[in-house]
Write a structure and sequence with these properties.
Strand 13, helix 15 and strand 14 form a beta-alpha-beta unit. It contains 21 helices and 18 strands. The longest helix has 28 residues. It is an alpha/beta fold.
């Protein structure tokens, strides 16, 4: 069996039905024989970053392994930023790249370089297949490592000549691996005792809650305790429904502001996440003084990685939460009082946000809150949301009816351009549901080629581009920098305006085969959303919103 057939049959043996990629010469052995494997669809992108971002979000949305094939050294370099984002998101993904014929290794061939070294810093394992006899074992191990907790990307280099070598070995799998472990009973008891006596318990839910289908267990635990639920400021999935009365929202990005948000919490339980991705340095802990800090993770290296713990517990997320729920003995009256108070607080926050929308209703260009409220009104119940709204993220979170796991995806790591690329992968994973991607205009330009892929494969994606003609988040960050480092300045914001010329997203979309329109009024926006989703296929709406005052 040829190396290329071992590779493709390894994908087949692991249940792969989708591959994302950008073609290149060193990928010829794969591309020329895709027709021999009709059960594997190839989703073609015009840039490696788009292909990797799409594969990463596909893995998040489908629960399957993301497979992406990029082109040799420069192509792999183009994809490294998105691989980094996948690493931060714990995406189970195998990134492959065609490599030059190993017999030319010492001659410095065109585009040749050490691919393993390029990928190594942003993956869990980086390897080159040196002979066809290695192919089966390397692919078996690649799938295993990608899914071992904490999950993440793996890189495999595929030299042209190795793909054409003969081997007597066939594809291998690791077999079904049941990784969810039962939590230690002593650890469960210690956590339950602290949570049961807490006067102000708080839960911080990470992406693994959604990824492992443990939203029900987490919300049941929170309701039993009367505990508020927070998510990280950057989160890839929605651990609980946005309407849940105990959900407070996303935490800030600095230790001091996280500590203020947690308020008088005396016991903080963190479940299934890195905790925390910060932007600016603050002295001290993100937890209130004297609070017990608990953490549940699927892998021991995640425990106490960033913070001192009172109790840490390794176990399957669902299994651990169920065990903890069974061991709780809280004061039922006190828990009910907290639940009632937090429900009222949620209602007050919703009312305050509605008031904010109403007060901003007459401003033009539209306020972010007004635009998000209009979008929310037009969304069908089965829409899947992909969000890279950046400075509109808070209004997005307030407005959008997110049903919980499976209805919301976003990027981790902070690298921009994930929204448009990710929407491709989410739409491929959810062909029977409309995908609605909300992206800032600056972010969109990092992966604008994704529009062509959406048109080429006729994917049901509505791209909503929030156009304020600026890198607004960077302007906010310049303000923060000047304040934190006492930089006195009456300067403006250098190189942070997307004008001179203004970018025409409608025109860009049209050039790539995507129907598009530009809106300036909320009611027109709302009607355009409903019309685009009903029509199916890809569509883009450029929404004029206000910039930073």
């Amino acid at each position: 069996m040829l190396g290329r057939d071992i590779f493709m049959q390894s994908l087949r043996a692991h249940g792969v039905t989708r591959m994302f990629g950008n073609p290149g010469t060193t990928e010829s052995p794969l591309l020329d024989h895709l027709a021999d494997y009709p059960e594997i669809d190839y989703i073609v992108a015009l840039h490696e970053g788009v292909a990797v971002g799409a594969a990463s979000f596909y893995a998040q949305a489908s629960g399957k392994t993301g497979i992406v094939n990029v082109h040799v050294a420069p192509g792999l370099g183009n994809g490294v930023g998105m691989i980094f984002n996948g690493l931060k998101a714990n995406t189970p993904m195998i990134v492959t790249a065609g490599q030059q014929d190993t017999r030319m290794r010492l001659r410095g061939p065109v585009l040749g370089h050490d691919l393993v070294a390029i990928a190594a810093p942003v993956v869990k394992w980086s390897v080159q297949v040196e002979t066809a006899d290695e192919m089966a074992d390397i692919m078996r191990r690649a799938f295993k490592i990608a899914h071992d907790p904490p999950m993440g990307p793996v890189f495999v280099a595929l030299p042209v000549n190795v793909m054409e070598q003969q081997s007597e070995l066939g594809p291998l799998t690791a077999g079904p691996l049941y990784r969810a472990s039962q939590p230690d009973a002593e650890g469960v008891a210690a956590m339950a005792a602290l949570l049961s006596k807490a006067k102000a318990p708080v839960i911080v839910a990470g992406d693994d809650v959604a990824r492992r289908g443990a939203s029900g267990e987490l919300t049941a635990l929170a309701e039993t305790l009367g505990a508020s639920i927070w998510v990280e400021g950057i989160h890839a999935q929605a651990p609980v429904a946005s309407s849940h009365p105990l959900l407070r929202g996303g935490l800030p990005f600095e230790a001091a502001t996280i500590r203020r948000a947690l308020g008088d919490a005396d016991c903080v339980l963190m479940v299934g996440g890195p905790f925390f991705e910060e932007v600016w340095h603050d002295q001290g802990s993100p937890f209130p003084a004297g609070a017990a800090v608990l953490q549940i993770e699927e892998a021991a290296p995640q425990l106490a990685k960033n913070h001192e713990l009172t109790v840490g517990l390794v176990g399957g997320i669902g299994e651990s939460l169920r065990a903890l729920q069974a061991a709780l003995r809280p004061d039922a009256g006190a828990a009910l009082g907290r639940l009632t108070a937090l429900t009222a607080l949620k209602a007050e926050a919703d009312e305050a946000w509605a008031g904010r929308v109403k007060r901003a209703g007459g401003r033009r260009p539209m306020a972010m809150s007004v635009a998000m409220a209009a979008l929310a009104k037009a969304l069908p119940d089965n829409a899947v949301l992909v969000e890279e709204a950046i400075t509109a993220s808070l209004d997005f979170a307030r407005a959008m009816p997110v049903a919980g796991p499976g209805s919301y995806y976003a990027g981790r790591g902070g690298g921009i351009g994930q929204g448009l690329a990710g929407a491709i992968g989410v739409a491929v994973a959810n062909p029977d549901r409309p995908t609605v991607c909300v992206s800032g205009d600056g972010s969109a330009m990092y992966s604008i080629q994704a529009l062509w892929t959406a048109a080429h494969h006729n994917l049901p994606i509505l791209f909503v581009i929030l156009a304020n003609r600026e890198y607004r988040v960077l302007k906010h960050n310049i303000d923060a920098y000047r304040s934190r480092f006492a930089v006195e300045s009456n300067r403006g914001y250098t190189h942070m305006d997307l004008t001179g010329p203004a970018i025409g997203y409608v025109e860009l979309a049209g050039g790539m085969g995507v129907k598009a329109e530009r809106v300036t009024e909320p009611d027109v926006f709302q009607a355009a959303v409903a019309r685009a989703i009903k029509a199916g296929g890809p569509h883009l709406i450029e929404v004029s919103i206000e910039g930073k005052p």
